[in-house]
Design goal:
24 helices; about 45% helix; Beta Polymerase, domain 2; about 550 residues; DNA polymerase, domain 1; alpha/beta; 7-stranded parallel sheet
Length: about 550
């Protein structure tokens, strides 16, 4: 059990206590405990009692509950309160904008226990008429219910990729004479997906027996040689079975999106018993199209004309751009973050803590920025030739201004401009706000452009073409935020950005050394659009980065003159 999983138990307990109107002091203490656990420098499961009880915010009572949870995978206090909570209330907690106090009113005062009942009440305008809500809140709740229900059954690719690969590896180990391969959405590296699909030449009866003894697991046969396995708390697994001769044809036919396959079959052909996927492309005089890029019809034109470029790989990333330290809400010091970069072979680190408007994240005041810069100067002297660039993730304020004056912004090497507050905006408001930041001469990178959180928050609306055109005009880089819940800019707009000559930047938005690994997910998403290393800022070497930033130095010098 990871620290995050342990923290989730205490966070849920705190919220449920608030919903039930129980002791507010104890509820708050559990909330604080959850926060402290998330910030611990090491996994609790690796600590002995002395280390655990010596950690900030962990006393005898909380420590004993943590040990109980690790030993039994259950927290009795949580089990007790769950037993008296309707399942629909737990589901309601997943709706954005509904905190414990509001849910308590909905349940205790309105008598509503399910999301369906809540949606019906909104449509009847009853929620708006309830004290503490209003029309705006009701409209927001309705929109968030719609988004939540549309996302049901979906999973983040980052969360299921390991599951899918492990399953294929285990089956391959058990049946070495057979073939197994991921296919469909998971093979195309889709950001979110409903089902893990696997192609195999194993027979249905043999495969079924592998899952029959697993508790609460259901195996179902479907038409067209498909076998569906439903494992508790895991994504649905669908096997697409075929004979050995037709294995690669089946793999090819089930990998591509509907749009890709329709376009392919309208112009090209596939033999029933292809020797390999590569052979299918060779037979049709096409360059090989990697699975991740088998999404749209236009990729076939590039394959036919030999215009495909080699897509970016995780090893192409030369530096960490967009990271947070203990100066704001990060878990490690700048030195620890830098040394981890050096150990992992990166050439530079861009420290971009939060700006002062992000008070909830301990955002930096101008005085603290100056102090941080002094620390960075000392570390650069100590760690050379490795370099730490001075940056800030500056809040784009509601009126489109950046969160500091020109004097502060001019002291930075890189300015990452992001929206963090007042995310519920009309298209007009969002466009005015983001466009103002793009036009600001101090903006280097537009951070996570839509503010979305996959499967949780849709993000504010933007006219992507106008935004990308403006970034091209003002020489602003667009971030591909690599956090698996963001992956923002969405890959569907990366190709247009490349056409317009806009530089992209795959950035981990790391709040700890462990966050560096998220680069992988950003690269996997960017591959779908055919992004190359040359068109990605974080693939620049240290020397290339320094040359690149001279353009911004000149632009800012003119402003300050």
């Amino acid at each position: 059990m990871t620290n995050y999983e342990i923290a989730d138990h205490f966070s849920l307990l705190s919220k449920l206590m608030d919903i039930h109107g129980e002791n507010s002091f104890k509820s708050k203490s559990y909330s604080i405990l959850a926060y402290n656990i998330e910030k611990l420098p090491a996994e609790i499961t690796t600590m002995d009692d002395a280390q655990l009880f010596g950690m900030k915010g962990i006393g005898e009572s909380s420590g004993s509950k943590i040990k109980e949870l690790i030993a039994t995978s259950k927290l009795q206090a949580l089990e007790d309160i769950l037993a008296k909570t309707p399942p629909g209330i737990l589901e309601m907690m997943r709706i954005k904008g509904l905190g414990p106090k509001k849910i308590s009113v909905i349940w205790k005062e309105m008598g509503i226990e399910t999301i369906g009942e809540l949606e019906y009440a909104c449509n009847e305008n009853r929620l708006a008429q309830t004290k503490g809500f209003g029309t705006k809140t009701q409209d927001s709740v309705l929109a968030n219910i719609k988004y939540y229900t549309a996302s049901l059954g979906f999973h983040l690719w980052a969360h299921v990729e390991t599951v899918g690969k492990s399953l294929v590896e285990q089956l391959q180990k058990n049946f070495p004479a057979n073939k197994f391969s991921l296919t469909g959405d998971i093979r195309r590296q889709e950001n979110t997906l409903e089902v893990i699909e696997i192609v195999s030449d194993i027979d249905s009866d043999t495969l079924s027996k592998q899952f029959q003894n697993m508790p609460d697991t259901v195996v179902e046969e479907e038409p067209n040689e498909r076998l569906v396995v439903r494992i508790p708390n895991e994504p649905v697994v669908r096997f697409r079975l075929t004979d050995t001769a037709g294995y690669y044809t089946k793999l090819f036919m089930t990998t591509g999106s509907a749009e890709f396959m329709e376009a392919f079959l309208a112009k090209y052909s596939v033999t029933e018993n292809a020797a390999s996927e590569e052979a299918i492309f060779i037979d049709n005089k096409l360059a090989y199209i990697p699975p991740a890029q088998r999404e749209t019809a236009n990729i076939l034109e590039l394959a036919a004309t030999g215009s495909m470029s080699e897509v970016i790989q995780p090893g192409d990333i030369k530096g960490i751009i967009h990271s947070h330290s203990t100066w704001s809400d990060g878990q490690e010091t700048i030195e620890q973050m830098a040394k981890a970069c050096i150990e992992q072979g990166f050439e530079y680190l861009v420290i971009s803590d939060h700006s002062q408007a992000a008070y909830y994240a301990n955002g930096l005041t101008p005085d603290r920025i100056a102090a941080q810069h002094a620390e960075i100067d000392a570390l650069n002297a100590k760690l050379a030739p490795f370099k730490i660039f001075k940056s800030i993730e500056v809040d784009i304020l509601s009126n489109g201004d950046l969160d500091y004056n020109a004097a502060v912004l001019s002291s930075l090497d890189i300015v990452i401009a992001s929206v963090h507050s007042n995310l519920k905006m009309s298209l007009e408001k969002a466009m005015d706000r983001v466009m103002a930041a793009i036009r600001n001469p101090f903006t280097t990178i537009l951070g996570h452009p839509t503010g979305r959180l996959l499967l949780s928050r849709e993000g504010y609306p933007l006219d992507h073409k106008v935004i990308i055109d403006a970034c091209a005009e003002h020489n602003v880089v667009i971030e591909i935020n690599a956090h698996p819940k963001r992956l923002d800019l969405d890959w569907r707009w990366v190709e247009y950005a490349m056409e317009k000559g806009v530089l992209l930047s795959i950035d981990p938005d790391a709040h700890s050394v462990n966050g560096y690994k998220d680069i992988y997910y950003g690269v996997m998403s960017a591959q779908k659009a055919g992004l190359t290393a040359k068109q990605n800022l974080s693939s620049y070497s240290l020397a290339e980065m320094e040359t690149f930033l001279k353009v911004y130095e000149e632009k800012r010098s003119k402003v300050m003159a």
